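Weekly structure sync, notes
Attendees: PL, DS, HV (note-taker this week)

Item 1: Aminomethyltransferase folate-binding domain-containing protein
DS walked through the input record. Source organism listed as Pseudoalteromonas rubra. Sequence as pasted into the shared doc:
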Amino acid sequence: MMSTPIIFAKHRQGTVAAENRLFSPQDLVVLDFSGFETTPFLNQELGLNLNKLMAPGLGLQGLLVGGHSFAVYYFSETAYRFVLSESAAQALSALVSKHDSDYDIELVRRSDLAIAQLSGQAALETVLNSFSLTPGLQISDELACYGKQSGDVFVTTLVQQGQQHYQLIANQESLSLWQARLAEQGFAHSDEHAPN
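Item 1 (cont.): predicted structure, written out as tokens:
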């Protein structure tokens, strides 16, 4: 029985860091956003143009009012995932609460999920091989991002501060195992914060 390949994306924009590095961005959180009116809310209240997000996994990076950056991934017309800083999460939560009675929406903080971020010359190949992903999409917009579920890890690709990065989002136990495997493959763990 053949399994269906999990197609992943590669950025055509951004530079590739010379060193293979692994970060644990402590200030990033995951919020899952769902409901029958999530897309209208994102269009009208956040002013997001979601027309390019036609396939599950496609995403975009942007700024909330106040300059808080975020990445949002499309799962369906009624489900999205935000990856953002704690301060941005608070700002988004406040906005959703303000419009709670106007839209059929729900914002859920995923406290069960942690994030690791890697970059470097071997990052793309390592992500593809480790998570059984098949390269297939080319992303040419620097603000676009892409994420796919592989087993218990949501794997993303994005450009931050002009550099290509990959995020691994999973429960802490699973993420710790992946971090150990990546360290064995030559990814130096850094205590520095990953770029926002």
